[in-house]
């Protein structure tokens, strides 16, 4: 690994501590077809922003255009969607997430049917489906054309775009833009989050969820905990989520660390654009 490869994906610093040197695919990690003899990645924690980074060269730009769902869900998007949708509340990350977001929006005093939510990286679309049941208007973006076709046909979202925020154009502004376990898959999370500002209404907010590395390490280790698996370039904590928000031009209204029904450790934040 050269020095450039070791720069932090969040703050750009090279001031790091080695957390793990991993030379074998963890048992629970998705098999992305890396030959076992080539498998190697390093997990660093950076002192200046406190984020963790997974450093390797296996997952590159364009990776999520169809291939991710192929490997992860084997094209059975609709079956998987129904299975997750049907989880009882106590086992459903999505039902808790939808309640968390709905409760926050309700406190802003907007009638639900007038609230337009844009879910970025919507995947199976379970979260927009839950929000639609609660009366919100939902839109989504995903680089996987099969996921978007499913969102339109089965979830019946109000609008959808195949691609990313980089190629998204809209006259329409949104009251909520959500990034649920999305930004950790990107090497430029600050640049990407900044893009959301241009699509928000004047009172609009952003909701973010990211894997929580601190809690994962308290309850396990960097090899076996899924928060640290290869597809996450960055793994956060409350301090690094706040750093990300500030760098992208947002203030945090609320940041918290949770343990989800699926056993994921997660940090979430509600953000609003910083004025001036
Ligand atoms: Zn950093």
State the gist of this model.
This protein has helices at about 65-75, 75-85, 95-110, 125-135, 145-155, 190-195, 215-220, 240-245; strands at about 15-20, 40-45, 50-55, 115-120, 135-140, 160, 175-180, 200-210, 235, 250-260, 265-275.
Structural class: alpha/beta
Q: pLDDT under 50 segments (min length 5)?
A: none
Q: Proportion of β residues?
A: 25-35%
* Separation, N- and C-terminal Cα atoms: 40 Å
List bound small molecules.
zinc ion
What order do the SSEs take from the amino end to the carboxyl end, as H and E?
EEEHHHEHEHEEHEHEHEE
The number of strands is 11
- Mean of residue pLDDT values: 93
Radius of gyration (CA) equals 18 Å
> Largest sheet, described in full?
7 strands, mixed
Based on CA inertia axes, which overall geometry fits? globular
Count of DSSP H/I helices: 8
Give the proportion of residues in helices.
25-40%
Biggest sheet strand line-up: 6-5-4-7-8-11-10
Textual characterization of the structure:
It is a single chain. The chain has helices at 67-73, 77-85, 93-108, 126-133, 145-155, 189-195, 213-218, 238-247; strands at residues 16-22, 41-46, 52-55, 116-120, 137-142, 159-162, 174-180, 200-211, 234-235, 250-259, 265-273. α3 (93-108) packs across α4 (126-133). The chain has 276 residues and is α/β, with parallel strands linked by helices. Bound molecules: zinc ion. Zinc ion (ZN) binds at residues 8, 10-11, 13, 46, 48-49, 51. Zinc ion (ZN) is lined by residues 8, 10-11, 13, 46, 48-49, 51.
